[in-house]
User: Fold these one by one.
Assistant:
Number 1:
Amino acid sequence: MLLCFFAQSSLLISVGCSSDDVESGDEDVEESTDDDDSEEEVIEEAPVYLIGGEEADAFVEAIYTPAVANEATDLAFHPERDELWVVNRDFEVDGTCSVSNPFSERCENLGGYVTIIFEPGTDNQNEIILEDGNSTHFMRRPPTLAMGVADTFATCGEAATGNFEDEPVNFIGPTLWSSNLNIFAKDPGVDENGAPLNGSHLDMLHGTPWCMGIAHQQGNTYWAFNGDIGAIDRYDFAADHGPGYHDHSDGRIYRFAPGEFSRVENVPSHMVYNHDDDHLYIADTGSSRVRKLDATSGTFVSGIFPLYEELADSRTYSNVDIQTVVDDDVLDLPSGLVIYDDVLYVGDHATGEIIAFDLDGEELHRFDTGLGADALTGLEIGPNGQLWFTNMLTGSVYHIVVE
């Protein structure tokens, strides 16, 4: 498979000379050796990143544009199939989805959906759009998605609740889904008592209102950006309850550093878990920074209150090790985030630029996507080593080609 990422290399040039033995009377002339007068010159090639480099041009290629514009907020490649999953939501409608008006335009507008692009970027590319039967609750206003293991993925919702908006309880959080196309967005039927099951979701826990980002760690464990209280929440769904069921009693929620982070309305704050250093890298959009959280740090303080469902465990941690990777004098509204080959790529929602940094925050290269302000959202690395991204103003999907 051809990769559009070139490793930094060196060109070694050796310059030397030698001569044969020459007779001059009885006098011997020693043979000169290469070591005597050889020279070495090392020429460093300029590094090339997924967004180009000083000596490598890059350009944007549109892969997909929907027939009807929408907010494409994030994207992820299926780990085993040649499929690109894009999470979408319609442009927000003003008003309140209330108990007294459950069929209002606002209520109908809240559910998110996914666009699945098969064989993306090839002549055989085709797409389908799928929406769960109860997306209003289980995929409300999604700003993000993350692929997991065993044919699963997770989303969360930028909303106060998954129920009617005039209800007082903030009841929403990440949802675990199957990426099996025989399960996702299919009617799950009825339970053993003949009662209808509720949507195709595999599991859902309800402790993160105004979620702005999600990242997979391992198994059924995900991290969620809690925009309501400025915390990072770690969810363990444990064993899922199966499509449409509702037993959450084995779930666990661990909350880290409440008040340390801040959201910006309608700007996703994406995150990525780096297994090499056990840190969660976070687009802290409200502070215009990229920060990293040490997943092994923290001091237990208490449980999580309030909670509105029975769980196996809930904990809040303080004294969490959080460091700034990229400061607010470099970025305006960091949103998309991905790590590839020890390079951190950050999409700035305010400018439409993608900036490459090393993992210490040193800027390496900057690329203008041409999208302008308020469009650039999710970033993803494709199986071909290219950088892909979404447009929140049109619903379009692009990748970057490096020449």
Number 2:
Amino acid sequence: MDEGLTVEVAAALKERLKAEARSLGFAAFGVTDASSAAGAGKFAEWIAAGRHAGMEWLAKDVERRTNPSLILPGCRSVILVAMNTFQEAPARRGRIATYALGGDYHKLIVGRLKKLCDILHEAGAVSRPYADTGPILERELAERAGLGWRGRHTCLVHPILGAWTLLGAIATTLPLPPDALHENRCGTCSRCLKKCPTGALSPEGFVDARLCLAYLTIEHKGPIPLELRERLGDHLFGCDDCIGACPWNRRRIVTEEPRFTPRPFPDSKELLGWTREEFEAATAGSAIRRAGYDGLRRNACVVLGNIGTEADLPALERALKGDSALVAEHAAWAIGRIRERCQQKTAGMPHEEPVTVPIDGVLDLHTFRPGEVKSLLAEYVAACREKGIFEIRIIHGKGTGALRETVRGLFSRMAEVESFGSAPEQEGGWGATIAHLRRKS
């Protein structure tokens, strides 16, 4: 590295890199210095508490992960980029995390970062690119580089794109001018904490992987804990619930990257019947392969156990007789769940699917798909009355949108609703409807 690099030359080089990053499809660009991570102590504390679950590689050489100069001798700066990954998910039984709907991002982002490394090489620098591919804390560095701030869901929040981003980093020996920190704008909002199906998030900004559905459906290779299976709901691979609840994701700007276009993955029942060869072919170049053949079929069993019907029993019974003990155990659990529901229905017993949101009188509907609103609202009203809550607030977004009209139309037809009307705006200008429920006689 040429120590004679002037401030002006470094600034001009940074602008060239930023322009090239934009042309490569990155939505955000920033630079931070290579000093040790300010959150190194918190990361070590997280590891010591066992919150990394079975991801033992994270516990190896913690100091190296928190100090860029230890992964690249002579490192002076770290460049951070963010790529928009948001896509509307196709309708199917078995939800897939947004980032995994299309092609895998690791090779895509690293390949484009290498083009930025070429520019740095021309300037005499040594550089190394990463995209969840090395011992570097991209989220903390991205926050330091001014790309956004860390939300309580632990993900980076970009002021325009929200948390629907994937990050890449380049450690380099060039001393580029750093960017300013971005103000944390979460305020007192805690929607992400309330939305987490398993309570994996803490107000201090930690996630306990032992409870996190993203970890359990992707990295975890053993059985899903029995006490968490119902909470898994219809999550087949990963979980977006916490970031989906974030108000900063309201814009939902669809990515322009064609490789992130959703793939036509099948219904969970069909997926459960895949051969290993079919799995390998369908997941080539996809992050979904990370779950593994048996892991993905294990997840499919739990999804069907939670939302499946009698028509799914033959597929589960075949899985029960298959050569994977892991899949067979989850298939047996799913069969028992479905048969229990069928027996309840046959016996004329009221069957209620669990409402997977806190029963606290406040329901944020804008993060749900339109087809879910009617049943969820009815279940929520019933659950609140059962709990003795007779005033509820339904958050549905800004202005006079279709969701608000849907909510009010449903309320007008519910005998349980005594009256309803507009509520004062929520934090950030979000509109809501407040309803008074009839007390149970």
Number 3:
Amino acid sequence: MSRVPLIFSPLTCLPKLPANRLRLSLYNPHLMETPRLSGTLKITAPCASRTGSGLLAAWILTAAVLSCAASATAQQDFFNNWPPGASPQEVGERVAAHFITQPHQGSTIFYGEVAAWYGALTFAQATSDTGLRDQLVRRFDPLLPGGSETTLIGQRRHVDDEIFGIVPLEIAIQTKDPKYLAYGKQNADRQWENPQPDGLSAETRYWIDDMYMLTILQLQAYRATGEKKYLDRDANQMVAYLEKLQQPNGLFYHAPDVPFFWGRGDGWVAAGMAEILRDLPANHPQRDRILRSYKSMMAALLRYQGKDGMWRQLIDHDEAWPESSSSAMFTFAMISGVKNGWLDAAKYGPAARQAWIAVAGYIDQNSDVTSVCEGTNKKNDLAYYLQRRRRTGDYHGQAPVLWAATALLRDDRPARN
């Protein structure tokens, strides 16, 4: 959990207190309501030593005891007390229920639908909603071998098709049903059947989208099986992409030959790093490298966040329109950082809160996310990115809203940095 600064009010030994107790009062100036935390601390040194080491020891001990309470209060203030229509519980329920009834978008189950399915499942888990989970499983069952919709499953050895495996893996994690585990695991294993000489997947192409599409599948296989090989593949793949694509300002070009900071492309990166950091142990050799890049990216995003709480279709172009899917992805990554202690809560908590409220405002009366950039291939052409069409209800936008709602609601892993 993130530590937040505490300020000490003058400490005094009050005459009415026993000689070996001190009355202390602490407050955190960064909290919106600056609540005070106070209490009585028993120390072994008598009050007469308050001008020496006894008082210093009391200060240090009290800070250690109460800073955790202040941190929890900070998170409560940033991620509670939502305006009408913006609570993650309400938003998540609306978008997840809508997903159940939405048709497939396209001739195959494309990665956007997969990401939304995964998001709805994680939301169901975070809210202990077994009814929602069971509906999501029933929606998936026609895609099992022998089912009526198997022709909708993409068969290419390509990140956009292989990511399909994260849905049965998430179902396996939640239900412990081995048939879903085997079904999803085959995608993860196939991705590394013929690795490159450097050990990376044969599906490596150095598009920033892959930093989620490829890595989330291996991460889900690790989460479902506990086999370290999947986590190591994941971390090595992520670091290879970081070394090649991250720019000095912390952001990422769409591809090495396309020097534009496309919003959703960078959103996939932010989400991918946030996901893997939740599972990488503190002693993993790649953790520090990934965490360093994550923090650099979050600092850049903080600089480019609009006054409306959103990010633009091209992140560093003020003339570009506010884009909802990338903004939701960045919101998810930032919330994850604050709740896990990777980011300073006082600095990033208000930004994450503002972003979530802004994104929630882009959900219409039908529970469709509006102003979602259409599918975008790489192209070295500024006008191409600025003129991309805006869509409503596209799974590219529904998915990260569900991720962010989940991140706000779940009890996340303790900080590992």
Number 4:
Amino acid sequence: MAALANQNYPTGPPKPVRKNLVQDQDDYSAVPQKNCGGLNKKAQELVESKQALLNILEDVELERKLAEGERDRTLAIIKNLADGIIILEKNVITLCNPKIEIFFSLLPDNILGKSFQELVEDQRIGSLFRFLQEKGLDLDRVEFQPNDNLTLEVSALNIKGLGKEMGKMIVLHDITREKAVEQMKTEFVTIAAHQLRTPLSAIKWIMNMMLEGDLGQLSDSQKEFLQKTHQSNERMIRLVNDLLNVTRIEEGRFLYELKPYDIIKLTEKALAPLKELALQKGLDFVFEKPSSVIPPIYVDEEKFGIVIQNLVDNAINYTKQGKVLVSMAWDKPKEEVYFMVKDNGIGIPPDQQKRVFSRFFRSPNAVKTETEGTGLGLFIAKNIIEAHLGKIWFESQEGHGATFFFVLPRDPRQR
């Protein structure tokens, strides 16, 4: 123990032992500096990524606000439209505007989220959805009257996005006022026409008596003046009759009495005075009868005569020289009779052809050629033919005449 005690031990804390991992102080400091550079680079990248994400978030937020603003703007426009709007997506109501409340006395919230079928049974708006169910969701300005005090014009439009159909938009346009004005106009025309008819008929009767010599002999010049007056009176009577026919068509009172007739004889009867008129004008007039036998055709004799008169009269009036051709053909398999009225007159300009069957329409070249005319003849003819479940159409080239076709079934009652 004493020997151990006499040993010389170093005083103070023990010195650390270096294991030569690095050679000197400069080498020791080089390693952490290299590692810190990599960390700094990573940190810088993180900062830049963070900033990029913040920029993206700012852009997204800006786009969100713009989208919300556009949505609010669109909703404000829809809510303030004068027309009623209903949006259907997958047969469910997803949007409607306050105008629906005015039309059907219900809040828009009462129908939002409901299916088409549910609303068919609704007491307040069910009539509209039953109408849509009957007519289909492909409508363009079809009239609908939910009650006596409201008339709507209904259109159904496709909503498309991303190349596919996303739903339907039902547009309800209030035409109650327009219909009321139209009704007043119709009533006025009816009253005026009836008031004119009586004196015109009396004038016609007196002039016929004078021309026949019942009131004494007339000189040639007197007869000539009376004949011109008689023709003018006849035009006035025809105008009055056309106006009355139009009002009856509009009111649904243009009644038809269908009976079986020999259609060839009925056509010849209607053509007789027109043929004479064409010959007086120096036109060739040809009636081509069908080669096959035609069975009796069910028509209204008076209304059929109006169709023939209106079509052939137009052909004569708008043909200065040449020929007017009327022909018939029988389609046995379809049990239909075809008519054709062809002329080589002034024709119809291409930009006017869509309006040919409209009320009071006369093309500019027709007005220049024949100043007199009402523009009602083709409108009336079309309605008569369609009331017989037939069809009318035409082909024309300006300056090269027009050809009108129409077809009538043998018996409309069986269609």
